[in-house]
Amino acid sequence: MLDHRGRLDRLFHALADSTRRDVVERLVRGPASVSELAGSHSMTLQAVMQHLKVLEACGLVRTEKVGRVRTCALRPEGLRLAEGWLSGQRTGWEDRLDRLGELLEPDS
Amino acid sequence: MLDHRGRLDRLFHALADSTRRDVVERLVRGPASVSELAGSHSMTLQAVMQHLKVLEACGLVRTEKVGRVRTCALRPEGLRLAEGWLSGQRTGWEDRLDRLGELLEPDS
DNA sequence: CCAATAGTCAAGTAATCGCTTGAGTATCCG
DNA sequence: CGGATACTCAAGCGATTACTTGACTATTGG
């Protein structure tokens, strides 16, 4: 329950960087190796690896090394957790507006 | 369209702090003054104001000063934008899995 | 009027971030 | 074998973050 807090912290922090979001968008289309991911971002391989570490730490990405290639894949549960918090807030807000509306116009 | 990138950066960054998420959760229940928000967070008023500035800059919160009190309210559009990106990725992922499944089991 | 209240401006600080360079190590191919 | 490939480890660095303290302004209630 309190881990939830830190989990969301790490999750939203991970998503707050467009390079990392690009990685996620790429991995939605299927797994990729580290150098494959680095290819499209004019940035050193090491930098991409650091981003990958962040994505892995928050549970958004799973990686596995086979031979000399590390293959990265998406883990959608993280996305769902963040989505859940967001939609919870939004619907909470909408419910409140509905109740306010009913107070002003008590028909329907 | 390119502003979208920076907008999501700021949005997710704003949500990556649990104090700021607390503020959002509070504002879902209705508007509040700055000191009201500061009350529950053992932290100076100034710190809370800085968080508020972040929330305002990314469009999640709207504030208005009347007399000597500044009243803060939620703006749900930001939530919707972030939610949209997240669900886009998730459904992209699910569609891909569906297509994979059809390849393996070509019935239905 | 005047003190308490509510917020504001500015500067300083320790920690973290995103990225780099440089120097490995392990695997694979010819 | 030997060179190319694919990472990995570590240190450093400028920028940004999340606060703090301290001083100041504008309202408001008695």
Please give the CATH architecture of the domain at 3-75 in chain A: Orthogonal Bundle
- What about the largest sheet of chain A? 3 strands, antiparallel
CATH superfamily of the domain at 3-75 in chain A: Winged helix-like DNA-binding domain superfamily/Winged helix DNA-binding domain
Gap between N and C termini of chain A: 38 Å
CATH fold-level topology of the domain at 3-75 in chain A: Arc Repressor Mutant, subunit A
- SSE ordering of chain A: HHEHHEEH
Could you explain the architecture of this structure?
- Two copies of one chain form a homodimer.
- Chain A is α+β, with helices and mostly antiparallel strands.
- Chain A has a domain at 3-75: Orthogonal Bundle (Arc Repressor Mutant, subunit A).
- Helices cover 67% and strands 13% of the residues of chain A.
- Chain A has helices at 3-15, 18-28, 34-39, 45-57, 76-104, and strands at 32-33, 61-66, 69-74.
- Chain A has a three-stranded antiparallel beta sheet with strand order 1-3-2.
- The termini of chain A are far apart.
- The model of chain A has no long low-confidence stretch (mean pLDDT 93).
- The A-B interface holds A 5-6, 8-9, 11-13, 15-18, 21, 24-25, 28-30, 74, 76, 79-80, 82-83, 85-87, 89-90, 92-94, 96 and B 5-6, 8-9, 11-13, 15-18, 21, 24-25, 28-30, 74, 76, 79-80, 82-83, 85-87, 89-90, 92-94, 96.
- The first copy, chain A, binds a DNA duplex (30 and 30 nucleotides) through residues 17, 19, 33-35, 43-47, 49-51, 65, 67-70.
